[in-house]
Amino acid sequence: VLNTLVVTGGWGRQDVELYDLTMKTWTTGPSLPSVMSKGQALTMGQNMFAIFMSGQVMKLTREMDQWQWNTVTQIPKWAVRGNNRPLLPAPQLSEHTLAC
């Protein structure tokens, strides 16, 4: 996300904070739709994504000075233990998968 530092979630949290690197100001961003624990956040190009353990992938977008999370795809569920995909390393996604 251009010129913006995005801080997401935390253990049991849905908070999102945005720091404008140009204006040097913090604002509250749109809450994550669910708790981010055991998920991951990543950037690709100028895009910010949140990947939840359920496999839901969401993109942070800004429209008319309003930030929001939009679901872009669903990948196979992953988990820390068991037969599902392990948490680390991060899932491999492409621009095609994310419809960028």
Please tell me about this protein's structure.
- This protein is mostly beta strands and 100 residues long.
- It is built from no helices and 7 strands.
- The strands form 2 sheets. Strands 4-5-6-7 form a 4-stranded antiparallel β-sheet, with no helix packed on it. Strands 1-2-3 form a 3-stranded antiparallel β-sheet, with no helix packed on it.
- A hairpin with a 2-residue loop joins strand 4 and strand 5.
- The chain is globular, with a radius of gyration of 14 Å.
- 17% of the residues are buried.
- The mean pLDDT is 77.
Q: How would you summarize the topology of this molecule?
A:
Blueprint (H helix, E strand, L loop, with lengths): L3 E5 L7 E5 L4 E4 L11 E5 L2 E5 L4 E8 L2 E9 L26
Antiparallel strand pairs: 1-2, 2-3, 4-5, 5-6, 6-7
What is this entry, summarized?
With 100 residues, this protein is mostly beta strands. The protein contains no helices and 7 strands.
Biggest sheet strand line-up: 4-5-6-7
Give the low-pLDDT segments.
none
Query: Helix- and strand-based class?
Result: mainly beta
Order of secondary-structure elements: EEEEEEE
In total, the number of strands is 7
* C-alpha termini separation: 14 Å
Backbone CA Rg: 14 Å
Strand residue content: 35-45%
Determine the number of helices (DSSP H or I, runs of at least 4 residues): 0
Helix content class: under 10%
C-alpha geometry:
globular
Tell me the major beta sheet: 4 strands, antiparallel
Mean pLDDT: 77
